[in-house]
Amino acid sequence: MIYEIRTYGDPCLIDLNQLVVDVDDETKKLLDDMLETMYDTSGVGLAAPQIGVNKQLFVIDIGNGPRKVINPEIIEMSDDCNESDEGCLSVPGIYKKVKRANRIKVRYLNENKEIVEEEMEGFLAKAFQHENDHLNGVLFIERISPISRRMISKKLQLMKKARVKNSTKK
Fold first, then answer.
1. 11-169 adopts what CATH topology?
2. Domain ranges (residues) in the chain
3. How far is residue 27's CA from residue 51's CA, in Å, rounded to a whole number?
4. Whole-angstrom Cα distance, residue 17 to residue 53?
5. Which residues are CB-contacts of 142 (< 8 A; sequence separation ≥ 6)?
6. pLDDT at residue 168 greater than cutoff 90
7. Rounded alpha-carbon distances, angstroms, from residue 76 to 49, 119, 136
8. Is pLDDT larger for residue 70 or for residue 168?
9. By CB neighbour count within 10 A (0-12 exposed, 13-18 middle, 19+ buried), where does 130 fall?
10. Which CA distances in Å does 123 have to 45, 51, 111, 149?
11. What are the pLDDT digits (tens) for 21-53?
């Protein structure tokens, strides 16, 4: 099943996200549907709040196979950072430079209820941090410079208005 992606201004994107208590068949199906939705939209990551589900889970595939991530934690971050362009399915058409840690150590549950601890670097670390931010109600545009934020403020206002207009039609 392909879900509709929630866009900037949707309260679901900043709501509190609950820990997943049981990795049951429903959770596994949701993760599979999230992957299908992510691939359909040509994304590399998708967090549950982006499809209107306020749970602590996301999927990532940067081209080396999918990861299904449940109740993630970033337990270490390197001091060295990299700044590069980021975009987001929930903020379509906007790409801005974001500074992220080059290396991170993470812990999460996978779909088999196994605890996974791994070190990530480069694009995978960036994608993990981006999706993890979604679970904390943070969009990448909150991590950009004030000047960049001012440059896109009009686009964000229009996006928010369009979202409200579309939601009242339903």
1. Peptide Deformylase (3.90.45)
2. 11-169
3. 14
4. 8
5. none
6. no
7. 24, 9, 17
8. 70
9. buried
10. 11, 23, 22, 23
11. 999 999 999 999 999 999 999 999 999 999 999
Q: pTM score, two decimals?
A: 0.93
- Beta-sheet pairing, 91-101 with 57-60: unpaired
Where are the alpha helices (H) located in the chain, listed in sequence order? Answer: 25-40, 122-135, 146-169
Classify 54 in phi/psi space as left (phi over 0), alpha (psi -120 to 50) or beta.
beta
- Helix (H) or strand (E) run with residue 144 in it: none
Pick the catalytic residue from 76, 86, 131, 142. 131
From the list 144, 136, 126, the residue with the least C-alpha distance to 60 is 126
> What is the spatial distance between Cα 128 and Cα 89, in angstroms, rounded to a whole number?
15
Q: 99, 83 in Cβ contact below 8 A?
A: yes
Does 114 participate in catalysis according to the annotation?
no
- What Rg do the C-alpha atoms of the chain give, in angstroms? 16
DSSP 100-143: EESEEEEEEE-TTS-EEEEEEEHHHHHHHHHHHHHHTT--GGGG
Length in residues, the chain: 170
What average pLDDT does the chain have?
95
